[in-house]
Design goal:
CATH class of the largest domain: Alpha Beta
Helix content: 40-55%
Structural class: alpha/beta
CATH topology of the largest domain: Rossmann fold
Distance between the termini: 20 Å
Order of helices and strands: EHEHEHEHEHEEEEHEHHEE
Number of helices: 8
CATH superfamily of the largest domain: Response regulator
Bound molecules: calcium ion
Oligomer: single chain
Number of domains: 2
C-alpha cells in the first residue's frame, strides 16, 4: 500500500513517513501544495494524508480538485486545533476523515488502516485467499497452519495481490502501489519478487498472465 503525505512541517511529515514505513507502507512526502497536487494527480496512491494549511495550493483546494477529477482515493485531512470550521469544510470537500493536530501516531495509523481497507473489506484485519492468510495488523502470514516469514516488500506485494485477488495486475500497477516514487524499480524487479514469493507460498497462487502481469487466484 502506497501513501502520499502532504505536509509542510518537515518534522511532522518525516515522523509520519518513518512511522508508516515501519508499518510496511511505501510513502512519498510532499512539502508544498504544488508538489502534493502534482503527485496526487499523476501517481497511484492508496491513501493521502493531507494538511490543510500549505504553501501554494491549500489542502482544501487539492481535495476538491482531486474529487472533481474523479479520483476516489481515501483522503485523511490534518487540521490544527483552532481550525475546527475547516474540518467540516474538509469533509464537505470530499475528504473521508480528519485528524486534529497534535495526534498520537497510533491514532493516525488506525485511521489509515480503516481508510485503505474501505470499502472492499470489512474491519477484519485478516485477508484470506485460499489457504493464504495475511494479518494487516500483526503482520502474521500463514499458509494453512504454517507461518511464513516475508520481507517488508514481499509483505506489501502479497497484501496488494490479495486485496486485488482475481484481477489481472500489470507490473506497472504493482510498482505504483508497492514502491515509493524514489525507488528505482524496473518491471524486472517485480518478477524477482514474485519468484521469491512463490518459493514461500507455493507456485499455484500467483498466476502469470503473459504480456500483462500477474493475478492472484481466488
Ligand atoms: Ca501546515
Amino acid at each position: 500500500m502506497r501513501i502520499l503525505v502532504v505536509e509542510d512541517e518537515h518534522r511532522i511529515a518525516n515522523a509520519i513517513k518513518k512511522g508508516l514505513e515501519q508499518e510496511k507502507y511505501a510513502v512519498d512526502v510532499a512539502y508544498t501544495g504544488e508538489t502534493g497536487w502534482d503527485l496526487a494527480s499523476s501517481e497511484e496512491y492508496d491513501a493521502i494524508i493531507l494538511d490543510l494549511m500549505l504553501p501554494g495550493i491549500d489542502g482544501l483546494t487539492i481535495c476538491r480538485n482531486l474529487r472533481q477529477a474523479g479520483k476516489q482515493i481515501p483522503i485523511l485531512i490534518l487540521t490544527a486545533k483552532d481550525q475546527t470550521g475547516d474540518k467540516v469544510e474538509g469533509l464537505n470537500s470530499g475528504a473521508d476523515d480528519y485528524l486534529v493536530k497534535p495526534f498520537a501516531f497510533e491514532e493516525l495509523l488506525a485511521r489509515i488502516r480503516a481508510l485503505v481497507r474501505r470499502p472492499k473489506n470489512t474491519l477484519n484485519p485478516v485477508l484470506k485467499v485460499a489457504e493464504l492468510e495475511l494479518n494487516t495488523s500483526t503482520y502474521e502470514v500463514k499458509m494453512g497452519e504454517k507461518q511464513i516469514s516475508l520481507s517488508n516488500k514481499e509483505f506489501s506485494l502479497t497484501e496488494y495481490l490479495m486485496r486485488n485477488a482475481g484481477k489481472v495486475l500489470t507490473k506497472d500497477q504493482i510498482i505504483s502501489h508497492v514502491w515509493n516514487y524514489d525507488a528505482d524499480v524496473l518491471p524486472n524487479t517485480v518478477e524477482v519478487y514474485v519468484k521469491a514469493l512463490r518459493r514461500k507460498i507455493g507456485q499455484n497462487l500467483i498466476k502469470t498472465v503473459r504480456g500483462f502481469g500477474y493475478k492472484m487466484h481466488v
